[in-house]
Amino acid sequence: MSEMLEKARKYEDEQGKQIKAEDRPAFHVSPYVGWMNDPNGFSYYQGEYHLFYQYNPYDTHWDSMHWGHVVSKDLLHWEYLPAALAPDKDYDKIGCFSGSAIELDDGRQLLMYTAVDHETLEDGSKRDIQTQAVAVGDGRDYVKYEKNPVLTEKDLPEGASKVDFRDPKIWKGKDGNFYCVIGSRPADGSGQILLYRSANGFDWEFVSILAENKKRFGKMWECPDFFELDGKHILLTSPQDMLPEGLEYHTGNGTLCIIGEMDKDTYTLKEQFNQSVDYGIDFYAMQTVEAPDGRRIMIGWMQNWDTCANNRIPKGKWFGQMSLPRELSIKDGRLIQKPVREIENLRTNKTEYKNVAFEDVIRLDGVDGRCVDMEITLRPGDAQDIYKKFAVRFAQNETYHTAVSFRPYESILKIDRKFSGSRRAIIHQRRSKVNSRNGEIKLRLILDRYSAEIFVNDGEHVLTATIYTDIEADGISFFADGKVEMDVTRYELKK
After folding, report:
1. Cβ(388)–Cβ(409) under 8 Å?
2. How many CB atoms sit inside 10 A of residue 143's CB?
3. Phi and psi torsions of 346, nearest 5°
4. What confidence tens digit (pLDDT) does each residue in 430-472 have?
5. What integer best gives the mean pLDDT of the chain?
6. Catalytic: 416?
7. What structural domains and CATH numbers belong to the chain?
8. Of 23, 38, 59, 365, which one is the catalytic site residue?
């Protein structure tokens, strides 16, 4: 173990244990101490789910990228392990950037990550250079490969930048080979996804340009993932600097899902449909794993680069969370996301209401809390005079609240946290056009102290946001402009 990794492990052990459990999310992953961004190495190995993450243990701001490490048997109860990687080699001294993990044929776990170093230019200035490196271990400790890096600029197609070449996602193909996709920037400054192949996980060859942006969706495509799902091939990626298209792609640094078919002759993805992955405020850099039972499960960084200035919770000891793991499927050509079914094991203290008719504002006994799984089915109270607006407000007291609202005539759902306690003019609202029939809509709201995830119509859309309200604000209320009727089922979530 290097001195740098030993130092990081000692520091996180000393500082992390000082953070109280009640000052963290209950069942969302947060860093043991310091800063967290992209999920890395989301994998299943030796009976456990492993999740690594971009990690700066020394501060609540991005810097000095290490890999943090947690494990779980159920995707909800996570155990912190010592940091897995530190930037302790010449080729990765600027940082161990994002990557993935897989089990090798000999039973060891392989980590593949982007190594960043400096290059000095003719004028004396420096720039980052990105290569790919690997490390192997036993699920707890890892040793970097003596022949790193395993992919360099010589392995790039013509015109591709060695400055933007990152975030390998590895998997085992049906032919027994390992494959990985890597984000890349071609000569036009746009994004593309490169495909590589290896027989052993160490020796790699370029296969193809799997997908090309051609200046359609932002610029550089980061954090790609590629897999088969329900008879389709799915590419997930996080483009930088996206421009909105209607109510799609409003997050700037956002999320993109391309659904299509793989051309097995050319190793290229033939696009059939594209959509946002998350329509809320805080979601980026998603990564998936195939569970032992065949489910495709996704997790993302529950944050956005444009909102990171507001890192005030709690008391500056940690920053960053992962989303709730989500089960993926394809329905009617669209990506569907649902909370992992394991969360139902945390449900307790059920409160249920049927056919609640109201207009204006209403509160319901037993419907409150900051660790909540709540299902709402909404209908017009008068089919001839459909209501103008419905809203559910949560994390609420006399001063603060966050809200999800729906306007049936526009079929627009909005998440709004401008009254959540932020003292900065960061992004507070997002809107999404959702499916509704005569004002009917289904919402599932999952709260975990400092976050809200809203699943619409059984996962057709998802809106995610971190919230900044003091934990004591735990009220929930409902508002209607017009007559509505709703069913509400609320569970408290306990580990």
Report:
1. yes
2. 11
3. -95, -5
4. 999 999 989 999 999 999 999 999 999 999 999 999 988 889 9
5. 95
6. no
7. 3-339 (2.115.10.20), 346-493 (2.60.120.560)
8. 38
